[in-house]
Amino acid sequence: MESLLTVLHTLSDVVAPSSHEIEMRRVLRPLLAEHVDELRVDALGNLIALKRGTGAVPLRVMVAAHMDEVGLMVMDHTGEGHLRVKTFGSIDERLLPGLQVLVGPEQLPGVMGVQAVHRTKADSFERVTPLDSLVVDIGAASKDEAARLAPVGTVIGFATRFHEVGTLVAGKALDDRAGCTTLVSLLQGERFPFDLYGVFTVQEEVGLRGAQVAAYALEPDVALALEGTIADDLPKDEDSSPTTTLGQGPAITVMDRAVIADPRLVQLLVQTAQAEGIPYQFKQPGIGSTDAGTIHRARGGVPSVTVAVPCRYIHSPVSLLDPRDLEWTVHLLQAALRRLTPELLQVV
Amino acid sequence: METVPLLKQLSEATGPSGREEPVRALIQSLWQPLVDELRTDALGNLIALRRGDGSEPRPAVLLAAHMDEVGLLVTGIERGFLQVAAIGGADRRVLPGLEVIVHGRRDLPGVVGSRPPHVLREADRKQVLPWEKLFVDVGLPHEELCQLVQVGDIVSLCRPLVELKGGLVAGKALDDRASVAALTLMLETLQRRPHAWDCYAVATVQEEVGLKGAITAAYGVAPQLAVALDVTFARQADDSGLGTFELGKGPALGVGPNFHPAVVKRLRQSAETQEIPLLTDPAPGASGTDAWGIQVAREGIPTGLLSIPVRYMHQPVEVLAPRDVERTGRLLAAFVAGLEPEYRPRWEDEPA
């Protein structure tokens, strides 16, 4: 079994903006093949793995982690041979000028141009460059060459490579390659008493869409979404919550913008963490949304909860996480799933 | 020497103004086999001499390219994060999300933090972050961070040089390592071409903070003639105005009060004999290059300037055409080799 960081490294370096998750599926398949009983792709591109249970517990459990990440798409070409772009998912446009990117399946290096410092008017330094004034420069000398090298619709990803930073690790797309890594680890581990459907979902960043159809198809009795979530713990003027904090264990969602977590599942996670001596934290309610947001309202409803690895700077070219949080998350999930019983889900 | 690998090594080396040691060590190793003498002066300029074969006392030509780059300086440590300020002309607009190296007790990789879009208010998204809201994160707990980093430590930008289409490259410090590469190519060519004059190649320090290195190097070498090498503005999507040049069409020759007409003329002639295309870059005042400092050293030094067009100057994605670097090296070698023992730059009305 590969170490968690090895898997995270491999997955973080894959470029897979929403609806272009194919490279993620290619990388995941060999990691899962020997450990699961079925592996299939559905109509939207979700990769669905079934790990059959021992039969002791009559439950269908869905654990979801999304494969897609934020990125850019080529919309048009300029006369000089540059690429005009729009973003996949939510990206702070202020992060784009001066960025190195990888363009298309050939991973052509490109850069996001920005005015020479000397030729920038004083007030422009204080002005955010809007996305429609930014272009990607791949070195093409004409509109035709640019259109040939990177046709309209070509996908562009951050060029960041995974590496260690102090006691943390840095990489792009830790939201949600951290969740994918946790799910790979669960699927590579021992069988659970129930059937476990591990779903690597598509299009989370553009509306939780893969999870929606997967939950419909699988009709799970219970679902968990695994995430890499916001850790906004930079020093700030105002006394606002960091949402989650690095190094303080997995973050359990009670409520976000798309779901109120099932209280019985929250309870299960908390009690498991306490019993196992695993640190945990609650994600500041009301911020962000995850695959649980569509899973919980599939068909007649699915009790759902989200557990996340805290990550700094998500949706930016480089995010950071604490490897201990990743280990604790895997440990918490394994232990909590072992305690999962139909009785727990009976309405009281 | 292959140009792209040379540019890659030079662009990726660390050397913000005033802390040029790492890049100087690299240039030293590149130049050592190509020159007769190599020394470092009090400010840190690397001064290389290829002796001419003319009779003594020989005149000397100085060729200067600056090796420093823009960077950041640690100004404070707050709750496990580093506060920073600019060295040279670093642009706050490109810093969030950038990878950096903090040169503390040891080199620490880090990133410039950014708050996720989920927690930003609309007003936040319209604001370029002021210095006090920019933090460098090296992933260490506060106590450990304080052991390893102190106020005044240097932070350099971290960007690999990559090859684009059209034979272009993109890197973080092509201003002015591209010119250092051109000097290196010149020194290599001069191995095979005799020259009468002593030829001093100098990698200068602290250009980005006021041409400091060039000023002391010109004083120290006391040449009869000097040519500074720098980058100039290439045309780019959002700027094709006056004073911008197309990439790949050759270096640009400076004209204006900073430059001696005789040196300008000679450089133009050298380009013609080598069939190297040469653009003209007019500078009616300060050229903003080492040439400005060199020209007024001692009793005054006839000075010229060759510039290599670069897109996105001072940004971590500077783009240039390596063939412009090669042309610059070739032009310089021809220029140096063409200096006759008796030649001195003169004004047209000056009696010989």
List the helices and strands and how they pair.
The complex is a heterodimer of chains A (348) and B (352).
Chain A (H helix, E strand, L loop, with lengths): L3 H9 L9 H11 L5 E4 L5 E5 L8 E7 L4 E7 L5 E6 L11 E4 L4 E5 L22 E3 L5 H7 L5 E4 L4 E3 L2 E4 L2 H15 L6 E7 L7 H10 L3 E9 L20 E2 L10 H14 L4 E2 L9 H4 L8 E9 L6 E3 L1 H16 L10
Parallel strand pairs in A: 3-12, 3-13, 13-16, 14-15
Antiparallel strand pairs in A: 1-2, 2-12, 4-5, 4-9, 5-8, 6-7, 6-9, 7-8, 10-11, 11-17, 14-16, 16-17
Helix pairs in contact in A: 1-4, 4-8, 6-8
Chain B lengths: L2 H10 L8 H11 L5 E4 L5 E5 L9 E7 L4 E8 L2 E7 L11 E5 L3 E6 L9 H4 L9 E3 L4 H7 L5 E4 L4 E2 L5 E3 L2 H17 L7 E7 L7 H10 L3 E9 L18 E4 L5 H13 L5 E4 L7 H5 L8 E8 L7 E3 L1 H16 L15
Parallel strand pairs in B: 3-12, 3-13, 13-16, 14-15
Antiparallel strand pairs in B: 1-2, 2-12, 4-5, 4-9, 5-8, 6-7, 6-9, 7-8, 10-11, 11-17, 14-16
Structure explained in plain terms:
The complex is a heterodimer of chains A (348) and B (352). In chain A, a hairpin with a 5-residue loop joins strand 4 and strand 5. In chain A, the strands form two sheets. In chain A, strands 1, 2, 3, 10, 11, 12, 13, 14, 15, 16 and 17 form an eleven-stranded mixed β-sheet that branches. In chain A, strands 4-5-8-7-6-9 form a six-stranded antiparallel beta barrel. In chain A, helix 4 (174-188) packs across helix 8 and helix 6 crosses helix 8. Chain A has helices at 4-12, 22-32, 143-149, 174-188, 209-218, 263-276, 292-295, 323-338; strands spanning 38-41, 47-51, 60-66, 71-77, 83-88, 100-103, 108-112, 135-137, 155-158, 163-165, 168-171, 195-201, 222-230, 251-252, 281-282, 304-312, 319-321. Chain A has two domains: 4-69 and 172-345, 3-Layer(aba) Sandwich (Aminopeptidase), CATH 3.40.630.10; 72-158, Elongation Factor Tu (Ef-tu), domain 3 (Beta Barrel), CATH 2.40.30.40. Chain A is of the alpha+beta class and 348 residues long. With 352 residues, chain B is α+β, with helices and mostly antiparallel strands. Chain B folds into two domains: 3-69 and 172-337, Zn peptidases (Aminopeptidase); 71-157, Elongation Factor Tu (Ef-tu), domain 3 (Beta Barrel). Chain B has nine helices and 17 strands. Chain B starts with a helix and ends in a 15-residue tail after the last helix.
